[in-house]
Amino acid sequence: MSDVRAQQRPEGASDAGPRWVTDGGLETDLIFHHGVDLPGFAAYPLLDSVDGRALLTDYYAGYARVSELAGANLLLETPTWRANPDWVVSLGGSPADVRRINLDSIVYLAGVAEMLAPSGRVLVSGSIGPRGDGYLASERGTAEEFADYHSSQIGAFAEGGADRVTAYTLTTVAEAVGVVLAARAQGVDVGVSFTVETDGTLPDGTPLGVAVDALWGQAAPDGFLVNCAHPHHIAEALSDDSWTTRVTGLRVNASRQSHAELDAAEVLDEGDLPDLVSEHERLARQLPNLDVVGGCCGTDARHVAALWGLAT
């Protein structure tokens, strides 16, 4: 674990508290605050237009401001959570488009990082989503099959010079292992993030601690996060805390609603901000190696700023 933490800690930083700001709920922010239609919950098509890129750049700039105010470093994630082969094809593209989209996203975001030029360090990470829905553990396969599946997206990130790749909202151990294997084959650092239900288990029913131990037993990542769940839901998994030192990042939902409720919602639940902050602080105290803090569904720069102790 010391090697993982050393890779993530900024130069000259103390070991007290997280040091990397990352963004919030990109897709929910675009849909509900900017009125953007995102078929399939996919943000990557915005890269194909000048206006779309301008909107994305403004979005990332908000988190660069948070990092400056917090005196922290900045982890920028590409808008490619849905840019894997199945989703690209379902949205009208072809398998050949996967490389173009993901390579372009890294080049674009590296340019954004240079333009924003925050005073802290900046890492550009290629964002990967699950092969399936993200809320349902419906996609089955072996780790080797998932490694083969995700290799095209990860290969494009590696080709573009990504500092790392991170897979979010994973629902099974097999897919997490596959992502790590694919990243190792491409020679890039990799983070993986499970999501949990309101009871702290993965969507397939696996307790989070069991999933973490199984992941480390097969293919340990360089960073490990939990995302797309309220801090209270994640805390439900902490009855056995033997694995909590492995957690290096949190990207939480604003809402206490379940995945099923969020999926059916027609209005955005931005949550109770004081409750979110207090629950996040309580959870963070139990995660001694927490180093990356951002948000997920329902959050925007206001929520992330508050999680960093900044006035909003």
Automatic annotation (TrEMBL):
One of its GO terms (molecular function) is methyltransferase activity. Keywords: Metal-binding, Methyltransferase, Transferase, Zinc. Its cofactor is Zn(2+). Zn(2+) binds at residues 228, 296-297. Residues 1-21 are annotated as: Disordered. InterPro entries: HCY_dom, HCY_dom_sf. Pfam families: S-methyl_trans. Coiled coil: none annotated. GO terms for biological process: methylation. Residues 8-311 form the Hcy-binding domain. SUPFAM superfamilies: Homocysteine S-methyltransferase. This is Homocysteine methyltransferase. It comes from Knoellia sinensis KCTC 19936.
